[in-house]
Amino acid sequence: MPFSPANPDFAAVVRGSFATQGLMQLIGATMERVEPGAVDIALPYRDDLTQQHAFLHGAVTTAIADSAAGYAALSLMPAGSEVLSIEFKINLLRPATGPRFIAEGRVVKAGKTITVSRADVFGYSDDKPIQIATLLATMISQAG
Amino acid sequence: MPFSPANPDFAAVVRGSFATQGLMQLIGATMERVEPGAVDIALPYRDDLTQQHAFLHGAVTTAIADSAAGYAALSLMPAGSEVLSIEFKINLLRPATGPRFIAEGRVVKAGKTITVSRADVFGYSDDKPIQIATLLATMISQAG
Amino acid sequence: MPFSPANPDFAAVVRGSFATQGLMQLIGATMERVEPGAVDIALPYRDDLTQQHAFLHGAVTTAIADSAAGYAALSLMPAGSEVLSIEFKINLLRPATGPRFIAEGRVVKAGKTITVSRADVFGYSDDKPIQIATLLATMISQAG
Amino acid sequence: MPFSPANPDFAAVVRGSFATQGLMQLIGATMERVEPGAVDIALPYRDDLTQQHAFLHGAVTTAIADSAAGYAALSLMPAGSEVLSIEFKINLLRPATGPRFIAEGRVVKAGKTITVSRADVFGYSDDKPIQIATLLATMISQAG
Fold first, then answer.
1. Domains of chain D
2. What is the ipTM of this complex?
3. How far apart are the first and last CA of chain D?
């Protein structure tokens, strides 16, 4: 996708905001790729992130998908902007086994106020990705 | 809503399943009301459950909303059933301040295979509820 | 819900906008109740509004639900505003038989820019309503 | 996407079902590409398919997107199956001008009971596509 960033320091802004999210630290998520309109977040499996069948809890899958989609949106916003999720929908496609997960956030349509993003989440075992979820989100830009 | 449970032990089933969710323990959520088609989940605010502005992270709001909606669905299923979220959409309505949150899960339409549930999440300060989110979900029943 | 309208002429604005929608005329929808934050739209069954099993097509159910939710939002906006659907999700709960349908649009949270609305759609046979769908939508206000 | 059809006559089944939808005839939609897991539906602009600003009504955009996503799902189902939309979410990205629209339905994950599909809708003016909407849907297979 041919997006050009409005803020040349977008990567520092995105990584700086991510570092202040208590929840991302609590679950052990890390920010990987940060490009204009594209942000990837990684997460290792952990026993305390599970639902009743010991798979990764759908809410944790959602957490990294929403964050990836939101920071993909933020990467295209002017300096001083902040991003909020207005809403999102997620389809949980398969049991989330892992042991490692990547959420790939991508901007679908960037706007002055509203940005629409998606995120696909993959479980990795032996480097072979299996898609476990897809999210579609509406983000709003706010002056910081 | 006049739902009658298919399993007379529905409350024990629902509470037993909730107790095995590592994530609910990690974030400190507790199950409150359990009635046929209606389950409430409570959560106190905590510093490590936040997004970048120190509000409750949308993914945590989502976690208790999805769980409340899913267990409301499970409360109406036959003995031996398990519930999985196929998908959900959530609108985050206001900044989530707290210091206490309740997610009220309610069944909209119960079916043999598919159950549709919703959940409204409220922040409580001085006993006055303010709605912070609403979720609409599709659940599937699986033999245990 | 205790909403007070920003524009005393809200009902005329809502009915006037509805009257200009080619699609609503094409399918034979009519606007019934218009109150602050609450708009109902009615539709009679017709053979050319069907899917492959002769039930009302889900897209027609969606059309009246989205319109009811959008006009409920518009009813609370200042004079000169226009409303656009940013996005919505709908769950189709049961086969839509009729012969008459009502979509009840209700505002969940009204904001300066963003309004969240829902709509429940009921089929009527012999005055007994059966819920056939529920929609959750995000609307944006624009200066006219 | 490397999908193989369960029914060798999938294209005839999909086209036959489409032909019985009264609504698709009413709005003038035609089925174009039909491949395993991929169905495109085309629609010319018409004055009676509009919202209040003379753009294509979001519900019409939704109609072709939902149909394309549903028939993409049906293309992978065994002989004798029928497809129903359980739910979908659509983001309306830009005003729908046209004069011609194409909805591209694609299967994300095919399952025995549940299939998840998406559809992207493009407006065409002088052969240059502009994306006007994206839909994410959950379909269920039923014995015919």
1. 10-143 (3.10.129.10)
2. 0.94
3. 26
